[in-house]
Structure formats: C-alpha cells, structure tokens
Amino acid sequence: MTKNKTNIAIFVTLLAFVAFSISDGLRKFLSQDYAIIDILFWQGVCGMGFVLLLMPFMGGRASLFNVTNIKWQLLRGILFALNTTFSIQAVSRIPMMDAYTIFFLTPFVVSISAAILFKEAIGKYRAFSIICGFIGALIAFRPGFAVLNSAYFYALSCVFLFSFASIIARYIGRENGLLSFAFWPFLCLIFGILIYSGGQIPPMHNIEFLAYMAVMGVAYGLALILISYGYTLAAVATVAPYQYIQIVFALGIDYFLWSSVPDLPKIVGSIIIVGSGIFLFIREGMRKQGKGSAL
Predict the structure, then answer these.
(1) Considering Cα of 283, then 161, then 88, then 214, what sign does the dihedral take?
(2) Among 112, 115, 129, which Cα is nearest to 276's?
(3) Which residue of 70, 154, 170, 277 has the lowest C-beta tally within 10 Å?
(4) Strand positions, DSSP E, 125-216
(5) First-last CA distance in the chain
C-alpha cells in the first residue's frame, strides 16, 4: 500500500465522520419536533435522490445493480439501515455525549475484527492511537450510566452494526461501484420503513422539513460513500481511529444548537483525541512506500 493511498484513505474517512456528525446533529435537533420515522424515511428518500443524481457521472446503472457481491451489498445495506434507525433512537433520547462515548467503541471492534478476519496487523502505534482516542473520549464525556435505558443499548448495537458493515465494505473492496455503498443502505431503509408502516408514506410536513432532509440525505450519502472508500483503500486499524474526530463536531453542535459550552475535561479530552489522530497520521506518513510491516 502506498503512502498516497493511505493519506487519501485518512482524508476521506475524516470527511465521512464529519458528514456523519452533521447528520446526527440535525437528527437530534429535528427529533424534538418531528416523528423519528418521518425523519428516517425522508432522509432516506433525499439520500436516494442524491445517489441517483450522481449515477450518470459515476458509472451509470451498472454501478448500482451490476454488482458481483449483491448478497453482501444487501446485507451491508440492511446493517446500515438498522444502524441509522438505532442511532437516531439513541441520540434523540440521551445526550449526544453519552451516545458518542458508546459509539467510540467502534474502532476497537472494527480493528479487532479486521485483525481476525483479514489477518491485518494492528501494530503498537495504531493500537496506541486507538486507546488514546478512547481515553480522550472518556475524559471529555464522562458518561453517567447510573440508570440505563434502552437508548444506551441502541447506541451499543450501533457499534456492532457499523463495525460489521465496515468489515463487509473492506471484504468486497472496490470491485463494485462506490455509489452502491450508499444506494443499498438507503433502499433497505426506505423499504424497511414502508413495511413497518404497512405501506403508509410518512408525512413530508413542510418545505423547511424537506430542506433539512435534503441536507441530511446528502450528508449521510456522502458519509456512506466516503467511509466505504476509506476502508477499501487502507487497513482498518489505520482509518478507524479517525472516528474520534466526531467529538469536536459533537461539542460544536451542542454549542451552536443548545448553547452548551464545553468544560475543561471536554477541552482536554478533545485535545487528546485530535492529538491521537495527528500522531497516527504522522506515523503513517513515515512509512516507506511498499513497506509491509504494521505500525
């Protein structure tokens, strides 16, 4: 794997998690006024529209349907549809701080899974970055789990759903069009909601609601495409720790939407998280081209 591919993988993965954070923040904000099922359905519809708009420029219909691993794409689509549903159940019912702390278990799960399934060595520096990032998240969020409710288990389920979906993306690689990585999750989400609602289409409400859904659909669609691209370009343990960048955006979203000012532990934790990502980026940049050993 070349240094250039690794840097591209890191960059697109960072963008993906930024897009995921935007989607999560808007979901939490809108869930105060709209039913969750309405948000999920119309985000899926808008996301699907975004994918179809990109289709002529990214391989046409063949990039969506002529897939050699259609069963894996369908399974991944189902996993991400469930992840989308469970994540909004989590962030709408508990503080984003608590939900994100649980979500930050994902780099552990996905890196260990990749090491077992693909024989990808994690390496001491990658492991150090993953552990430091998680410690930073704990310092920043200090989650209070004195009374657990189902929302925490929704968040924990997201860890495994997201991890397994990412592992599938790594397994099937880029022999399928990148658009298929967003198309199937949106398709499964839309059909799942229609089945759940007995064929009833959730209300669209108003233009403002639709505008929010368009932003969320584009953000989530980009995130699905970019995260899949990142996981096919580089070893999982290389890109997984960059999920911790979400803490910065979570704090920013909390401030701008709910005027929540971060305290000292959150600032310290954020510095540790960002520092762990910078450390890993520098270490990856020091790898010699063609060198096979893990960091």
Answers:
(1) positive
(2) 129
(3) 70
(4) none
(5) 13
Average pLDDT of the chain, as a whole number:
82
Cα separation of 147 and 5, whole Å? Answer: 45
pLDDT value, residue 70: 83
- Report the alpha-carbon distance of residue 143 to residue 156 in Å, rounded: 14
Judge contact between 50 and 183, C-beta under 8 A.
no
Predicted TM-score (pTM) above 0.85 = no
Secondary element (H or E) of residue 9: helix 3-30
Domain-wise residue ranges, the chain: 3-121+144-243
Q: Report the interhelical angle of 264-285 vs 246-258 (nearest 10°).
A: 150
CA dist 41 to 83, 93, 147, 200, 252, Å? 14, 19, 31, 11, 27
Q: What amino acid is encoded at 165 in this protein?
A: A
- Name the token pair of 117: 């399934």
For position 286, what pLDDT does the model report?
A: 66
d(CA 124, CA 196): 46
Burial class, 259, CB count within 10 angstroms (exposed 0-12 / middle 13-18 / buried 19+): exposed
Q: Which amino acid is at 64?
A: L
The C-alpha atoms of residue 257 and residue 140 are separated, in whole angstroms, by 19
DSSP for residue 201: P
For the chain, list residues with pLDDT below 70: 1-3, 66-68, 120-122, 140-148, 174-176, 258, 260-262, 277, 280-281, 283-295
Rounded to 5°, angle at Cα 13 from 9 and 19: 150
